[in-house]
Amino acid sequence: MSLAIFDLDNTLLSIDSDHAWGEFLLEQGAVDPVAYREANERFMADYNAGTLDMAAFLEMALKPLADNSPEQLSAWHQQFMASKIEPNILPKAEELLARHRTKGDTLLIITATNRFITAPIAERLGVDHLIAVNPEVKEGRYTGRASGIPSYREGKVTRLEQWLEGQDLTMEGAWFYSDSHNDLPLLEIVEHPVAVDPDDTLREIAKERQWRIMSLRD
Question: What class of enzyme is it (predicted)?
């Protein structure tokens, strides 16, 4: 029995849930239709290029959580799950999760997308453990700021190490599945790194290092 770690966006899902949430907010008329769309697209391009300014991105991404009531956000998220997430859950991803579950492995999703967006997705996938960016909450409302270290690039490793301190688990025999070169810091420290429908940079590195490359979309 080992730890099986999964990236979420463009790995278990065929989309980026952070970007899709931004599109959803635009459809609801909840954000500025010009400035928000431009920023959403720019940050997505920066992420793909490996140049994302995480602090600047989170300032934009978490502001709508602070601007709206928990009740409104909850109602929106239910619609978001139905319209954006459910159609983009990959059947082969669910099969992969089931294989690790059957082996008795501990399943963990680790993502740079915030917990408000991803906790219901992890629950839908039947994954009990989630490491995500934590939006700060005070007096029952989101503040628009992040709490703690963002689980992005090297931050994923740090947050995983912190999480392991409270678990009866080790990294021995661990798996990590990801599509993105941004996840190289974590891919490099697991026994079983797997490139899933990888971006071009990760594909080349995976070939050089003879890591497994697989698709959940074929």
Answer: hydrolase
Domain boundaries, given as residue ranges, for the chain: 3-214
Cα gap 123→114, rounded to integer Å: 14
Task: Check if 67 is active-site.
Answer: no
Catalytic-role residue among 7, 16, 18, 179 = 7
- Among candidate residues 9, 16, 18, 105, the one labeled active-site is 9
Alpha carbon separation from 162 to 27, 118, 135, 159, 166 (Å, rounded): 37, 19, 17, 5, 7
CATH code, 3-214? 3.40.50.1000
CB atoms within 10 A of CB 212: 12
Per-residue pLDDT tens digits for 26-65: 999 999 999 999 999 999 999 999 999 999 999 999 999 9
Residues 6 or more apart in contact with residue 113 via CB below 8 angstroms: 8, 9, 16, 17, 18, 132, 133
Is 105 labeled as catalytic in the residue annotation? no
